[in-house]
């Protein structure tokens, strides 16, 4: 770092420049001029929604080399208008935590170890179990012959981290499958 001279003093810089009121470049320190925003080196930015509650605050997620470097509120979001609560502002930890699970894990009944599954196998297992539970517990009519067309083998507990549209689609899916036991964490 070069030594500061008399001519580097802010008052002298102010008098020597066009910034006579001392509100601009004349009073800006070298350290301030060399400071860059935290997001300056990010190679991509993605719009996202905070995963913590049902409010759905908009986020801008900055990343570099495939790693999240910064998360801030999206000023274009009509919900949050650029603001985030402390949990939303700290959601960068979700993507960067060393404890984050990135593979599908399955533990068979009575097994003591987890095994990794590929996405297609896991989805097929879920679909097979869903259809089997529906078939096994289907009630077409009651004891008096009145139509029921329902299953008691499937239930749904929705979460408040899902937005209204997602909860609506889940409700429609489970209703179409004949499930009548549906609840949501936000209502409980």
Task: Report on the architecture of this protein.
With 188 residues, this protein is an alpha+beta fold. The protein is elongated, with a radius of gyration of 28 Å. It has helices at residues 10-16, 30-34, 86-89, 92-96, 119-136, 164-176; strands spanning 44-49, 58-64, 67-73, 104-106, 115-117, 138-141, 147-158, 179-184. The strands form three sheets. The protein has a three-stranded antiparallel beta sheet. It has a three-stranded mixed beta sheet with strand order 6-7-8. Helices cover 28% and strands 26% of the residues. The longest helix is centred in the C-terminal third of the chain and has 18 residues, at 119-136.
Q: If you compute it from the alpha carbons, what radius of gyration comes out, rounded to the nearest whole angstrom?
A: 28 Å
Spans of at least 5 consecutive residues with low confidence: none
Biggest sheet: strands side by side, in what order?
Answer: 1-2-3
- Total strands: the figure is 8
- Number of discrete helical segments: 6
User: Gap between N and C termini, in Å?
Assistant: 62 Å
Overall morphology: elongated
Global mean pLDDT: 85
Largest sheet: 3 strands, antiparallel
Helix content: 25-40%
Strand content: 25-35%
What pattern of helices and strands is seen along the backbone? HHEEEHHEEHEEHE
Structural class from helices and strands? alpha+beta
